[in-house]
Amino acid sequence: MRDCYVGIDIGTTNTKAAILHTDGTLGLPLKAATPFYSAHGAIFFNLSLLENIIGDFRKKIRKRYRILGISFTSVGESVVPVRNGKALADPLFWNDPVTENTARNTPVTNEECNPEMNRKGKTNATLSIYKILWMRNVLRTEEPEFWLSIAGYFMYRFTRVPCWDYSQASRTMLLDIDRGAWSDDLLRRFDLQDRLPRICAMGSRIGQDEEGVSYALGGHDHITGLFCIETLAEKRPFIFDSIGSSESMVTLTDSRKFRSGSGEICIGAAFGPGSFYALNAIIYSGVLMKFIAGLGGGDTDAFFAVMNGRLLNSASPPEKIFPIIAGGDPVMGLEKSGLSLVNLPVDTDIVRLTHAAYVYMAAMARLNIDRLGSYTDPGALVIAGGGGTVNSLYLQYRAAVLDRPVYVAPSAEMGGIGAALCAARALKDEKTPLAFGRNQPLRIIQPDYKWAPLIRRQSDELLSFYRNMDGKKPSELFC
Prior knowledge:
The protein is of the alpha+beta class. The protein has a domain at 2-221: ATPase, nucleotide binding domain (Nucleotidyltransferase, domain 5, 2-Layer Sandwich). The chain is built from 14 helices and 24 strands. A 7-stranded mixed beta sheet has the order 18-19-17-16-22-23-24, sandwiched between helices. A hairpin with a 5-residue loop joins strand 14 (205-208) and strand 15.
């Protein structure tokens, strides 16, 4: 039987198992819908059904392969109260708004954790501390021995060792991020002394199950995915651009200190002590694309495939484009919402709108990547991943505006593969990650698109418009 490592990614929509063979190749992933249910006016993950799914994954994999190690990664913020080896309650969905009143009534500030999480005084109600307070108040279960992340809970179920990783711990608002330890003051304030177990580095070997399979610590799904990207980048500095329903850009850094105009950058703990990530986002990227596809009356991917064909067959693109203003982008910031089209020409058609959206998104990516350059090498590789990478013309626009190559990750299952790599690291296996990097080369999009000079000029004009927008009356924004 072939040896393999397994990474199990418990996500918002699906739970997946990635299979990484020791020769660096990937097996066919397993997938099941993540189970959840409604109660108390909120949405909960169903741990019992999740455990059945994970058990089924293991059985199917063991029929074909010998499992050397397993690691889990999961959505952030959700927490599980545990006593006597079992959950006292199912975890709240990671972004359920039911905790908003709790966050307003009991705002938590922790400058030692991550002041960026409470941007401009607005409390982030998804953080784990608010889920703990809400669950205590509403569910009124008996006091747990431990509170664990979802990934940590399943680690505990198989090894009986309770622990957290740094990336999930930094989403609780209870971490002293520089010390790499829980905040004693906040634990006392919320009566959580000894309720949050030790914090370990991602990729640590935690224990083994009754069958002798080793278990390694994974973490927050987005950060665990950086294990995969770091391997593909061959340890070179990188900025990972995850293009999905929203777009997040993240880099690893050895410092959380403010370096330059970082805007809405969020700093969190990454793999272990002294390892941090710097992240920013374009929240409305997917909304914008669905909006445009809706105007054209089509499925998003199919619609843009048609639009790309029409753009590629055009003699030239529109000479002028119009600005798009969207909340959640690096111009308007995360505190804004909504979508506006400014100076929309009366003769605009759907192809011209698509072109404008591509240039706008590339310009926003340029702003975010420039800001992240303050936390890493300014010449870091730009590596794109996620569902948005199926649109190759979209990536060509992006490379043209950035005026640098864009490298495309070969798989969308970054979290699960990253967890499998955590399992290999836990067993001090250096050969498998190297073989994986050789077997999964990055695809390169060069900045040589035929309209690149014009697209770069249009991007510059957009950014100039945004820079001059502050303080103007609405009437001054229109031609």
